[in-house]
Design a protein that fits this description.
single chain; 5-stranded mixed beta sheet; elongated
Amino acid sequence: MKRLVAVAVALAVIVVVGAAWVMHALRTPGTTSTLAAVLPHEDLPRAPDGVRIRVQVLNTTGVHGLARRATRLLRDQGYDVVEMGNGSPALDTTVVLDRSGRPEWAASVAKVVKPAVSRTQRDSSRYLDVTVLLGRTWRPPPQPFDP
């Protein structure tokens, strides 16, 4: 019985110390740790403040869930993904299309979903600023488990 109590106390101490380390790592600026994998992508460009850039994300590959992963990444960076789905034909390289005559917006999105090329293909009939056509070379960044 004493041994069981000692093991329970040791486990409780480990949990408390681990929680304290995590809290310290989250509060300390500039800390690099394994927590960096689940924090926002600081090195990627963000959508300009006060500007709504409407984005469509289309997966042209056969990889299930790629458009969803790109949508999460773009939304984390402040872009407004208004539509996602599958597209054709299948592409090797990701292509970012400027739909509204703002090539700098398409170039900014292309930096988030790199490697990508951006092109202008205006289409005023769409309520979009940018279309992302995900190609086979695009790899989503690692993300934490999301049930």
